[in-house]
């Protein structure tokens, strides 16, 4: 059976392609923007990629077209499919029908941390010899690809709240039917499809309604928006990560290193008695990654992995690509790549990096690229989210509907704005000096900024 995927180079649709290939389907696909790492991964799997949305890509008529959620009416291939009555479905629906309906699904949701927590959880299950299936919205470095079918009942999936398809405006995650559900956090994002936080909470509550009574819902106890959503009705046991033993019971981390690279994990019971589960010592940094780790440990325990084993696994965890990934060091200048594209994620990433580098300078480079960011929904929070950076560089593309040079940064911070990637590279390279850390933040390819900067520094 021949499947053709529209929007195949998105991390989710690329994962669908990999799983379909493992199931024995003939898979092809097309996308408007083909760039690594997903394009490289798909080519290695032997999946035929075509550039652009040209109807002639469908002349070898497939049995089924899987339509990515970036496709809309007016797209030439969408119109071709509809006019010729070619069978079509969404990625989440295809995944449910062909994979998830028979599996123990562990879904990781939330505005931030989905990819990293999903990767941690998958690695823990793999370390415990449970051979899980998974679909992660990134490239996990403990594995050779972002998705696989797996050889056990367990399937880990990054559960995105974005809408499913042009013909199905529900969040993707309502198709997943998890038994184990992580909700990391909940903030307003995706302003192109949601009007406010309440809209997002409504979609999350649809998901909560689907978790069975023999399942488990996990979240940080400090997340008020998650608590509000659970209060709308919850029919499943819940478990929490907690900041201290006063908020028992729950999972708690005690930092042994300021940057979060080492910490003790404890579980507090109803009486406030905390039992040490073990110590995590890893290459990751940041309090946000500690929070992600607690969720992954708790979710794995629900699937039968002792916390001690999960903690051992995290000691060998390699973070997902583009999550504070060190892309290179030139002349003692470290260049990191990160996917942060929301003020909260930007602030947490900088907090972790600041704890790691101490008083050394941080040069923060930002491409406002998400629909929410380009519209300026969070622009009033941007300056405060970048407060831990010493130098700030922002790309003012034509799609950004607000003026970056009007942001209210502190007097101690220097910031520069450029309208072209190459000019921004020049500005950063000119300011960087030995001992500095450059943090590049974008949820896209950023015009090859990372490699261009490393070449300029060399």
From TrEMBL:
Residues 322-444 form the Mur ligase C-terminal domain. It catalyses: UDP-N-acetyl-alpha-D-muramate + L-alanyl-gamma-D-glutamyl-meso-2,6-diaminopimelate + ATP = UDP-N-acetyl-alpha-D-muramoyl-L-alanyl-gamma-D-glutamyl-meso-2,6-diaminopimelate + ADP + phosphate + H(+). SUPFAM superfamilies: MurCD N-terminal domain, MurD-like peptide ligases, catalytic domain, MurD-like peptide ligases, peptide-binding domain. It comes from the Bacteria. ATP binds at residues 110-116. Keywords: ATP-binding, Cell cycle, Cell division, Cell shape, Cell wall biogenesis/degradation, Ligase, Magnesium, Nucleotide-binding, Peptidoglycan synthesis. Residues 108-300 form the Mur ligase central domain. Pfam families: Mur_ligase (PF01225), Mur_ligase_C (PF02875), Mur_ligase_M (PF08245). Its cofactor is Mg(2+). The keyword Magnesium applies. The keyword Cytoplasm does not apply. Its EC number is 6.3.2.45. One of its GO terms (molecular function) is ligase activity. Pathway: Cell wall biogenesis; peptidoglycan recycling. Residues 2-95 form the Mur ligase N-terminal catalytic domain. NCBIfam families: mpl. Belongs to the MurCDEF family. Mpl subfamily. HAMAP family: Mpl (MF_02020). Reutilizes the intact tripeptide L-alanyl-gamma-D-glutamyl-meso-diaminopimelate by linking it to UDP-N-acetylmuramate. This is UDP-N-acetylmuramate--L-alanyl-gamma-D-glutamyl-meso-2,6-diaminoheptandioate ligase. It comes from Thalassomonas haliotis. The lineage of its organism: Bacteria, Pseudomonadati, Pseudomonadota, Gammaproteobacteria, Alteromonadales.
């Amino acid at each position: 059976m021949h499947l053709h995927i529209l929007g195949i180079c998105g991390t989710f649709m690329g994962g669908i392609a990999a799983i379909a290939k493992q199931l024995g389907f003939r898979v092809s696909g097309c996308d408007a923007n083909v760039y690594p790492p997903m394009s490289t991964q798909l080519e290695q799997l032997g999946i035929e990629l075509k550039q652009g949305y040209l109807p002639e890509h469908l002349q070898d008529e497939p049995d089924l077209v899987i339509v990515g959620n970036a496709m809309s009416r007016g797209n030439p291939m969408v119109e071709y499919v509809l006019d010729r009555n070619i069978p079509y479905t969404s990625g989440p629906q295809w995944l449910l029908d062909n994979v998830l309906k028979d599996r123990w699904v562990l879904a990781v949701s939330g505005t931030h941390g989905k990819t990293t927590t999903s990767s941690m959880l998958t690695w823990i299950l793999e370390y415990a010899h449970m051979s899980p299936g998974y679909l992660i919205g990134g490239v996990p470095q403990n594995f050779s690809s972002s998705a696989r079918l797996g050889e056990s009942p367990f399937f880990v999936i990054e559960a995105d709240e974005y809408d499913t398809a042009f013909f199905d405006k529900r969040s993707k995650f309502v198709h997943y039917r998890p038994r184990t559900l992580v909700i990391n956090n909940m903030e307003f994002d995706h302003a192109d499809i949601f009007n406010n936080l309440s809209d997002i909470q409504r979609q999350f509550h649809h998901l909560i309604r689907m978790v069975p009574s023999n399942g488990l819902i996990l979240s940080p106890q400090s997340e008020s928006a998650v608590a509000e959503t659970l209060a709308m009705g919850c029919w499943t046991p819940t478990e929490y990560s907690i900041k201290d033993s006063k908020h028992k019971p729950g999972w708690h981390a005690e930092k042994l290193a300021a940057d979060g690279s080492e910490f003790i994990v404890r579980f507090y019971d109803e009486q406030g008695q905390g039992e040490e589960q073990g110590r995590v010592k890893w290459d990751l940094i940041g309090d946000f990654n500690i929070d992600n780790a607690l969720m992954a440990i708790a979710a794995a325990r629900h699937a039968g992995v002792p916390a001690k084993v999960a903690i051992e696994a995290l000691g060998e965890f390699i973070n997902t690509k583009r999550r504070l990934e060190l892309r290179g060091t030139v002349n003692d200048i470290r260049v990191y790549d990160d996917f942060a594209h929301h003020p909260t994620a930007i602030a947490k990433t900088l907090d972790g990096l600041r704890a790691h580098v101490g008083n050394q300078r941080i040069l923060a480079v930002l491409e406002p690229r998400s629909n929410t960011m380009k519209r300026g929904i969070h622009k009033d929070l941007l300056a405060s989210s970048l407060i831990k950076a010493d130098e700030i560089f922002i790309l003012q593309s034509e799609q950004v509907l607000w003026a970056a040079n009007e942001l209210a940064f502190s007097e101690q911070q220097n910031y520069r704005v450029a309208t072209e990637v190459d000019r921004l590279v020049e500005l950063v390279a000119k300011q960087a000096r030995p001992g500095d850390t450059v943090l590049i933040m974008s949820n896209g390819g950023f015009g090859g900024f990372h490699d261009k900067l490393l070449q300029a520094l060399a």
